Every structure is written in C-alpha cells, then in structure tokens.
Amino acid sequence: MLSFKVFVMRTTWNIILILLAGVGLGLLVRSRMDQASVERPEPGDVVFSDDGPSIEDDPTAFAEIENPDPSHPPEDEEWLSRFELIERNGELVKSEQLLGQPYVVSFFFSTCPSICVQQNQKLKELQDAFQGKGVKFVAISVDPETDTPEVLTEYAARFGADPNQWLFMTGDLTYIRRIGGEIFRQPVNKQFHTERFVLVDPEGKIEGFYNWPDKPQFKKLQEKIEEMIKGEQS
After folding, report:
1. Which residues span the domain enclosing 28?
2. Number of structural domains, the chain?
3. Spatial distance between the Cα atoms of 91 and 88, rounded to a whole number of angstroms
4. Which of 33, 179, 194, 210 could, after both became Cys, cross-link 221 (CB 3.0–4.6 A)?
5. pLDDT, tens digit, for every residue of 51-73?
6. Alpha helices by DSSP H, 66-193
C-alpha cells in the first residue's frame, strides 16, 4: 500500500511538472510572437514611413546610437554637428564642403524596387530645374553594405545625376543612422527611411522638411530653393 501511495504521489508531481513546463513554453512562444510582431521588418520588406519619431518629438530617440569607429569625425562629439561620407567617385566629402549653397538631403537604397526610384525621379526634376544654379542634392544610402561606390555609380547613371551637383553617399550604417537622427532629424535604419527631403540653407542650418509625394509640399520646396538662390545672388 505504501508503495502504491508513493507511486501515486510521484505520478501526480510528474503531471504537475509537465503542465508547468507546458505553460512556461507557451508563454515563451507567445512572448517571441509578440516581439516579432513589433520588430523592424526584414530587409526584404521595404517600409517607408513619415510617422516615425523625430528628434523634435523625442530628443532621446537616437541617444542609444553610438559610433564605434573613431575614423568618423568628430569622434569626440556626443551629438553630431558635421559629417564625412564617401561619394560614388570614392572621394571623402565633408559637410563643410557643402556650405555656401543650399542643398537637399535624402535617404534611399539602390535595391529599393519602387519608392526610391520615384523619389530619385523627383530629385531629377529638381536637378533639371536648378541646373547650374548653385544648389546641390545629397542622397545618402541606408544600405551601405550593398551600396558601394561602384554600385552607386551605376545607380546614379540611371537618373543622369550630374556628379558636380548630385552626390550619392555611402559609409558605415551606424554612422549613417547617427547622421540621419542627430543632424537631419530623420529616423533611418537599414533599408528604412522617410519620404522627406531635408532642405539645408547655405549656412548649414535646416530650413524645413518636405514630403515629396505631396505636390503642394514639393512645389513649396522649389519655391524655397529659389528664394535661397536669389538671396545668395543679391
């Protein structure tokens, strides 16, 4: 009889342990599913959003982004105020070289099948409208591992990009995230960016953000560029 009671007790405990293990496993799976549902899309899932956080909305949104590579100046800055990136011709371009004229910043990646193509067609319109008028366009890749200078050279040719006016830039992804967040107030990540053009004045200060798919905003951007050009000429 004693042995039978011990058997029953052991069996009961084994059943309880199995049930607890099942519950724990279920919670773990549910947690992983919930986490996956809110994680950033996979590289193949092209996502463009104008609703992401900005520095104005949350000054700490990009505080965790660090620049581990001291070759990217200025390495001692806690919050970037200038940048250096590699242009498609392989040369290093510093933000100081862009001063003295207005310039438009955008983020893209070459393997994007649709939106980036439309975005760069809009930049082509701007380039044609302001050809030789002292305005530059700075397109920064958010997939720099793919977008080498050689790849960007071929990509830029698709849009007839004037190398003296329209720059295609690449570099380290972590550093580019910092440039996007800390300098141009745009949330960017690998194959992720907004549909905004950032207009920078000749002194290097941000004048405004323009959602290029919106026709009134695109027109306003052109008007602002015209104003800056006239202001420099007067």
Report:
1. 1-39
2. 2
3. 7
4. 210
5. 344 434 443 343 333 333 333 34
6. 115-129, 149-157, 173-178
